[in-house]
Design brief:
The chain has 359 residues and is an alpha/beta fold. It has 11 helices and 12 strands. The strands form 2 sheets. Strands 2-1-3-4-5-11 form a 6-stranded parallel sheet, sandwiched between helices. A 6-stranded mixed sheet has the order 7-6-8-9-10-12, sandwiched between helices. The N terminus is likely disordered. Belongs to the BMP lipoprotein family.
């Protein structure tokens, strides 16, 4: 989930002429892969002898202040602690086909990168296909369980559990008994966020009103990278009486924050602690964020690769595993933290089960 910030890509020496040639081809319907070095985002082969890691971002890439940036943070930690020999980070384009995603993964595999991490469920079919073609390479995919093979690790999260906590926070902080949810694209993954958020809000106030708006429907995934649409959706909710709006919309979330500031309302971030990463003038309206620790999952996978202990199949990062949580930056939920932590412990213990779908 994602926000395009000046197309900041990173790469290291991957059969240079192959990638540079690929970057010079293609048109707007199938955005091409770029492989330009980018300062700290690259690592030199001469500096370490560890693995060569390839990472394929979803739309927006490094700099989205959300989902992709969390994956990038995990890669950065691995660079610092695991002695990676090379890294190559490649970014997806808006509206591209699965064939373009397959080619991105093949470029990495052909360049000798192993392991390769795909960020986002949109890589499901491409990862499954390319992993079959390169059985000796380890692949990981974030947010997808459908791509299954002996060399694929599926890194999943209990987004509904984290969303329950911020839903409870929204209800506890709402003065109008009216909150909202803006989803980027109406797919099962984002429905998990919605389901948890509504359950959390209604656990606090059974009669609370929850507005729901999705920005686009598949196969249109631009809802994850359209701040203008996010702003319009949130404006409608604030105008209708909501005073807290939660966004699970990647790069479109910046527009939700803008609407919250204009309406003198509050917003809830997603994936990263967005009170730290959003534009400075918007950070104050973000009362909390549902933190989804993609960085932890990426680092764990890379560490397991260096110790020859990669596990194929599903690993789920839930509240019990500290894979999701809520943030407290800014102190705006300090007054309700004890109540949120009470809910958190009930979920961890199994006393409270959070729904992962709305119907």
């Amino acid at each position: 989930m994602l926000q395009n910030r000046f197309g900041k890509l990173a790469a290291t020496a991957l059969a240079g002429s192959m990638l540079m040639g690929a970057a010079a081809c293609g048109g707007s319907e199938e955005p091409t892969t770029s492989a330009q070095p980018s300062g700290a985002a690259s690592s030199a082969a001469s500096a370490a002898t560890g693995p060569k890691v390839g990472l394929a971002y979803d739309i927006g890439g490094r700099g989205d202040q959300s989902f992709n940036d969390s994956a990038a943070a995990g890669l950065d930690k691995a660079k610092a602690e695991l002695g990676l020999a090379e890294t190559n980070e490649l970014e997806a384009g808006t509206g591209e086909t699965e064939a373009a995603k397959e080619e991105r993964l093949r470029l990495l595999a052909d360049g000798g990168f192993n392991p390769i991490i795909a960020v986002g469920f949109a890589y499901s079919n491409p990862v499954k296909k390319v992993a079959t073609e390169f059985p000796d390479i380890k692949f990981a995919i974030v947010d997808d369980a459908a791509a299954a093979a002996p060399n694929i690790s599926n890194l999943l999260f209990a987004e509904h559990e984290g969303s329950f906590l911020v839903g409870a926070a929204a209800a506890l902080k709402s003065k109008k008994n009216h909150v909202g949810f803006v989803g980027g694209v109406q797919v099962p993954l984002i429905n998990k966020f919605e389901a948890g958020f509504i359950a959390g809000a209604k656990a606090v106030k059974s009669d609370i009103k929850v507005d729901v708006k999705y920005l686009t429907q598949p196969p249109d995934f631009t809802g994850f990278n359209d701040p203008a649409k996010g702003k319009t959706a949130a404006e409608g909710m604030f105008d209708a009486g909501a005073d807290v709006v939660y966004q699970a919309a990647g790069g479109s979330g910046g527009g939700v924050f803008e609407a919250a500031k204009a309406a003198k309302g509050l917003a809830i971030g997603v994936d990263s602690d967005q009170a730290k990463t959003a534009a400075p003038e918007l950070q104050g309206v973000i009362m909390t964020s549902m933190v989804k620790k993609v960085d932890v999952a990426v680092f764990d996978f890379l560490k397991s690769f260096t110790t020859n202990s990669v596990k194929a199949g599903t690993t789920t990062y839930d509240l019990k595993a500290d894979g999701v949580d809520y943030s407290t930056t800014g102190g705006q939920v300090d007054d309700v933290k004890s109540k949120l932590d009470e809910y958190k412990q009930k979920i961890i213990s199994g006393e409270l089960t959070v729904p992962d779908k709305t119907s």
